Amino acid sequence: SGYHRVLEENRKLYNQVQDLKGSIRVYCRVRPFLSERSSYVSTVEHIEDGNITISTPSKYGKGCKSFTFNKVFGQSVTQAEVFSDMQPLIRSVLDGYNVCIFAYGQTGSGKTYTMAGPKDLTEKNQGVNYRALGDLFVLAEKRKDNFRYDVAVQMIEIYNEQVRDLLVIDGSNKRLEIHNSSQTGLNVPDASLMPVSSTSDVIDLMNLGQRNRAVGATALNDRSSRSHSCLTVHVQGKDLTSGTILRGCMHLVDLAGSERVNKSEVTGGRLKEAQHINKSLSALGDVIASLAQKNTHVPYRNSKLTQLLQDSLGGQAKTLMFVHISPEPDALAETISTLKFAERVATVELGAAQVNK
Ligand code: ADP
């Protein structure tokens, strides 16, 4: 009967979502109060086992809304704790898989802090980028009797749907194209590819990249919050017995701020920026949703960002999204919209809701 068909469809969908839960993980992180604003009351009411409850006061009284993710990190969680269970992900890059880790959230919610770290970088407050590469070197060293690994990085920026190399020394502003080369595994073949073999190599290159990213920014135009930056780590491993070559890659992406811009308040360049950001973030959401539904057509080509990540989203690739929220009451609307986006990506709720229908 029709009813049974619907049940069967729902069961299939649920299984697909369960399959996918292993490959797309969503972690939520709450930024601590910045000291000068610490008199505020946090909008985060409660955190427990992957659940986060946000209080949503309105003129009708006190309300709240809960969201579920693979993990939720509260304000006092350290950089080391955030990174603590990521070793399997790093190991899979050495095994020849593609991995994509990205940071999503409104400007000022802590994306750069999670991925890179604060401006006064110490070993203790280093972000995911440094830790991931550090672990990669340690694991490669452990396998050195059986494998020989070469690691190289690229760092690019996507601003207004234009791709720029961040690892140039002369400050040149060459525009780059994205086209996947199946031979080399490089999808931005003309971006500088720098070999790295130690954490200090990585620190030097990240500093160069960050300096180049600041080019074009003025006090009023903090470009870094309106561009996506991507550190791509290419790993090539040679099996010393069989001679087989394995290729894995890891994209570490600090996305542009997700805040919605009030169209009536901005014009010209600022409006164009906002439209490009909206376009690429919603393209990212669409790609992930369509992967979750196992659609045969996945709309990768709708933005530069999704083109860049094409071979690292879906299929055998593993994806981890860190969604960031600010605890201040004046960020509430953005916080809710961020968590809704993240929940769409996590699809856990979608799966459950469809089954219960
Ligand atoms: P975004 O990249 O989302 O715009 P930032 O990473 O620049 O945000 O964070 C905004 C400010 O908050 C920075 O001064 C940063 O150092 C600080 N910050 C963010 N997250 C944390 C954290 N978990 N612990 C301490 N300070 C943080």
TrEMBL record:
Residues 23-348 form the Kinesin motor domain. This is Kinesin motor domain-containing protein. Belongs to the TRAFAC class myosin-kinesin ATPase superfamily. Kinesin family. KIN-14 subfamily. The chain holds residues 378 to 734 of 1018 of the full protein. It comes from the Eukaryota. Signal peptide: none annotated. ATP binds at residues 105-112.
